[in-house]
Amino acid sequence: MSLYTTTRSPIGTKARTGEKCPESGVWKVDGYPTTTAPIAKGNVMPPYDGRAVTWTLVQYA
């Protein structure tokens, strides 16, 4: 048994523009227009289409 465990954020986790990305993976913008983007854990969640948006984790990296 390991002393260190790594817990992933679950698929469906949400993060807003300006927040630190909680999990590396493919993120999708909630709403319309939408897009997906690969974002690494610790990076700042970007705006989309010139506005602050909510991103949802859809796939692990």
Pick out its properties.
4 strands; four-stranded antiparallel sheet; 61 residues; 31% strand; mainly beta
Question: Can you describe this structure?
Answer:
It is a single chain. By secondary structure, the chain is mainly beta. The chain has one domain (14-60). The protein contains no helices and four strands. It has strands at 14-16, 25-29, 36-39, 54-60. A four-stranded antiparallel beta sheet has the order 1-4-2-3, with no helix packed on it. Strand 2 and strand 3 (36-39) form a beta hairpin. The chain is elongated and about 45 Å long. The chain starts with 13 loop residues before the first strand and ends with a strand. The model has no long low-confidence stretch (mean pLDDT 94).
**N- and C-termini, Cα separation:** 25 Å
Largest sheet: 4 strands, antiparallel
Structural class: mainly beta
Write down the secondary-structure element order.
EEEE
How many individual domains?
1
> What's the mean pLDDT score?
94
